[in-house]
Each structure stands twice: as structure tokens, then as C-alpha cells.
Q: What sequence folds into this?
DNA sequence: CCAAGATTTATAATAATTATTGATTAATAA
DNA sequence: TTATTAATCAATAATTATTATAAATCTTGG
């Protein structure tokens, strides 16, 4: 989904496309580094000096609620975000600390029922050592 | 795995089976409620009044590192633990806030390589509404 | 333009986690 | 057993992440 479509989604749901929200969307667009709230804030404050952390928190949560971002709780005490919405999973390298996207077949259905429980979202986290750190 | 085997694992790795560690192990043994650090502490302080949160944190992390407990980061800003080690996944109900064990077939292998990355652990989190809350 | 409501900012408050340090306890060797 | 050393624990302080609040600012429809 490109940014303009995301702006439409915002408007549809009655949220104004403010400069701050556009900035966060643009920052996240195509960003594969799975930034934390702090990292989003740091990445934007040079261009938007008046931006506050509270706004970054609120914006990321709003975008998550609208389904425009995925929220990852891979790490203890540190949430991060992903702009890639389509089904994929995450690999966390215990050595370098990076989060990689990974494609793995998994039979768990999306938006369906499992044992009578309604599934909204599915996240698979794989913890280990990445190929780069293995060879180093 | 029964507690006596877990005690052996502790000793093998050079850690003393202290009263505090035994207390945490016993508390977690067969506990399917996925307690948080705070809940483990609250569950033990009546019997062990001198126990401190720092010890509970350290003990849970040690047991996790030894593979005797699983650490779940299902929730933003709240870690919880599971004494059930064998492969299974977790369902988090957004309505009642409870965490349920769930058995789902998933092709992701354990202790193996994926795309050249070494897999230590795999966690699948399913978010949604549980059957109980659906019918209510 | 003006009013109503939404949003942002700045800051304070809260909650979770981590670090530190001295005291206590356990393990080991004489 | 006792002395020595290392490991562990408890209490507290410090840090970090997150949430709440209230005033200022912006947006939008009339």
C-alpha cells in the first residue's frame, strides 16, 4: 500500500492527515529497519523540531489501529513497528539485535477462527542468530 | 518436565538450587495462567516475606536462559512466563486480557536453520477474541 | 471570520526493568 | 570444623518506556 492510499484510509475513518501523521507515514514507508518509537522520533525531529514523543506514540498507535502499521513486541521492554502489512514473520538476531523479515509457510490462518477463538492477527517471532553473525 | 529434573538442570549448569529458585520453580510448575513478574512476586511473598522483586526478576531470567521457562512478550510493556516448554503457541484475548495455550500446526522447525539463520526459539502469538468473550 | 472539536506539545506521573551495593549464604579446601 | 572465596540475595536507587494531563494550536464547517 502506498502512502496516498494510507492517507485515504485515515480520512475515511475521520482522522485528519496532519503534518505529523504524514511525517510518520513517510518515515515508515518502505523502512525495513523495524524502528522503535524512539527511533521514529529521532529520525524526524531534525526536520520537525517541535515534534514531541507523545505525538509519535499517539500516531504510531493510531496507524496500528487503522491497520497501516504492524506493532511488534519481539523484545522485552521495547516495541517496534513495521510498515509491511502483508503476512510475513520476524527473525530477531540475539547477536546483532536486528530484526529481519522472513518468509515461512505457516498453516495458521488469518482472520478466521481457531478452536472457536476469533483471530484478528497473527505474529510469529523466531529468535536466533542471523547468517551474518554466524559466519563472523 | 518435573521439578526434580529442572533442579538437576540448574546444578548441571553450576547454579545452586536456592530456596528462592525452588519457590519460583514450584510456583510456575503446572501454572497455566502465564503470570507476570509482579504476579509471581505477589504469589510468593506471603510464604517468603523477605523475597524481593529483584530476585524474582533474576530468577525468572535465569530459568529462561536455562530453557526451563518460556518468556512471552505478547503484550506491550508486560512480559509474562510459561512453564510449558514444549512447542505450542499463545492466544491473547483483547477483551478479557487472558493468554491461552493453543495448538496449531505450523511448519516452522525448531532448532534448525531458516534461510541460513540459526533458530533457537520460535513463538507464535495470535491476537483476537476468545470463544468465551465471543459468546458473552 | 468564528466556534467547536481534534490534535499537538510539554510536562508530569506511572510502571516496568535494570543496576548497584552491602549483607548473607553456600561451596571448597585446609 | 573453620577459614576463605565465590555466588546469591535483598533493598534501594536509577533508568527507561509508556501513559495521562492540561494548555496551546490547528482544522474545518457554518
A:
Amino acid at each position: 500500500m502506498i502512502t496516498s492510499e494510507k492517507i485515504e484510509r485515515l480520512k475515511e475513518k475521520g482522522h485528519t492527515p496532519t503534518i505529523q501523521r504524514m511525517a510518520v507515514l513517510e518515515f515508515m514507508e518502505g523502512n525495513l529497519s523495524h524502528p522503535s518509537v524512539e527511533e521514529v522520533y529521532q529520525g524526524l525531529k531534525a526536520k520537525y523540531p517541535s515534534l514531541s514523543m507523545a505525538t509519535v506514540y499517539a500516531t504510531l498507535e493510531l496507524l496500528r489501529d487503522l491497520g497501516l502499521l504492524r506493532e511488534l513486541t519481539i523484545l522485552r521492554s521495547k516495541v517496534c513497528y513495521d510498515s509491511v502489512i502483508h503476512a510475513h514473520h520476524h527473525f530477531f538476531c540475539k547477536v546483532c539485535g536486528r530484526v529481519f523479515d522472513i518468509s515461512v509457510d505457516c498453516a495458521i490462518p488469518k482472520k478466521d477462527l481457531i478452536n472457536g477463538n476469533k483471530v484478528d492477527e497473527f505474529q510469529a517471532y523466531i529468535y536466533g542468530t542471523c547468517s551474518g553473525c554466524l559466519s563472523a
Q: What stands out?
A: Chain A touches chain B at residues 71, 73-77, 79, 89, 91, 93-94, 100, 102, 104-108, 114-131, 134 (CB under 8 Å). The two ends of chain A are 36 Å apart (CA to CA). The mean pLDDT of chain A is 91.
